[in-house]
Amino acid sequence: MTLELSSCTYAYGRRKAAVLTDFSYRLPPGLTVLLGPNGAGKSTVLKLGASVARPHRGDVRFGTTPSTAKAFRKAVAWMPQDIVAMPGMTAREYVAYAGWLKGMSRADAWCRARRALARVELTDRSDSRTNDLSGGQLRRVGVAAALVHDAQILLLDEPTAGMDPRQRRVFRDLLGRLTDEVSVLMSTHDVADLAEEADHVTVLAGGRVLHSGTTDTFLAHAPQDTPPGRLAEAAYTELLGRYE
Ligand SMILES: Nc1ncnc2c1ncn2[C@@H]1O[C@H](COP(=O)(O)OP(=O)(O)OP(=O)(O)O)[C@@H](O)[C@H]1O
């Protein structure tokens, strides 16, 4: 069972041009990295996938469960681009609050928050106030909040933005481990994010899918003389060059 967008059309406002027209996408298992230039439609796809926004035409499903069903919200979790600290609230309180908002009892949310923080390896920062955490740690708290209800699909909007190289490494390792249990779609502007952990790569431009396939088929778009360390960047540039 996976997340599927079928023939979706979406515009921000009635008089605005559609960002996505007749857009279809099926999320593969494992970790998929979503690439594309500014304004390509990455956040919009993630919002439709998370049912935070509803398509004007077409539908979004998890298996046979429509995005309007309560079960859909349990199965699919979303972490927005602009995650913010809650001053005074600890990491565990933050995650438990997210669970409570999703309909859990206080006791259940509190208990699951501990487990979710352990999954993102932040047990030792459970009692730290969220405004005392680094940007990378705060995003891991965001992932814990998204996972608190045992989602099967995790949609992450630029989770590594603003992280230093070491934090990126930690975050990518974390995603590599999570994808044993959860399918992840993660947007990014950093092609290095797809490194070894990504199973699939999807490239969007102008609201259309330019490429969607395994990381190897994506890298195969790089010109033949590309040095190994530059393959992802070269493949991305090549694909976009064909579009422009
Ligand atoms: N709230 C909004 N109101 C009006 N237009 C919007 C809104 N959000 C996005 N758009 C427009 O929709 C299009 C797609 O935006 P989207 O944020 O999905 O792209 P993106 O690929 O995530 O871009 P970025 O990499 O810059 O975050 C852009 O043309 C953008 O200007």
TrEMBL record:
Domain of life, source organism: Bacteria
Cleaved signal peptide residues: none
Gene Ontology molecular function, alphabetical: ATP binding; ATP hydrolysis activity
Taxon lineage: Bacteria, Bacillati, Actinomycetota, Actinomycetes, Kitasatosporales
Entry similarity comment: Belongs to the ABC transporter superfamily.
Keyword field: ATP-binding, Nucleotide-binding, Transport
Protein's name in the database: Putative ABC transporter, ATP-binding protein
A matching Pfam family: ABC_tran
InterPro entries: AAA+_ATPase, ABC_transporter-like_ATP-bd, ABC_transporter-like_CS, P-loop_NTPase
